[in-house]
Amino acid sequence: MSLPPALQDCEKTCQELGDRLQTLLDQQQIDNPLIIGIRTGGVWVAERLHQHLKVQENIGVLDISFYRDDFTRHGLHPQVKGSELPDSIEDRHIVLVDDVVMSGRTIRAAMNELFDYGRPASIKLVCLLDIGRRELPIQPDLCGAKLELSDGQLVKLSGPEPLTLSLA
To answer: Which of 15, 95, 110, 123 is the most exposed place for a label (fewest CB within 10 A)?
Structure first.
């Protein structure tokens, strides 16, 4: 199995996602959204969307390590770096970005953390790749491509320069 054409060039896919996101934001009359990437791969994709949309405010970074529901089973990841968000996200329109959405658990953890900073006006979920093995009812608003993996297959995002996806 190989990557779908939409993911063979991640930079081009990010540009296309940026165009689609701009259209969505325009349709919903959202200007100056706060773009937040989930560490690590989501931050790399968020940086590209941020540049494409020419948003003035810096991107936010979420490290969801303390919000994971498997934290007590697996412990803390050795590279926890903390989140970097504005003091409040109260009534802000958020674009939450991750590289791969699979079970929905990472996104649930990210939203739990976001609500600790305030109550956003809205959250739009954008991802580069949707694996679609949901355990929770969470769906991206926009994604670069969808891919079904065989048992044992994994997707790995490498970056930040260049941004590439590979199957393992």
So the answer is: 15
CATH number at residue 11: 3.40.50.2020
Beta bridge partners of 97: 37, 126
User: Which residues have C-beta within 8 Å of that of residue 142, sequence separation ≥ 6?
Assistant: 17, 20, 21, 24, 124, 125, 126, 127
Q: What is the pLDDT along the chain (168 residues), one digit of tens a residue?
A: 567 676 788 999 999 999 999 999 999 999 889 999 999 899 999 999 999 999 989 999 999 987 866 655 555 555 667 899 987 899 999 999 999 999 999 999 999 999 999 999 999 999 999 998 899 999 999 999 898 888 888 888 888 888 888 887
Q: What is the pTM of this model?
A: 0.91
Give residue 161's domain range: 5-71+80-167
H-only helix segments in the chain: 5-8, 10-27, 41-53, 71-74, 105-117
**Crossing angle of the two packed helices 41-53 and 10-27, in degrees rounded to 10:** 60
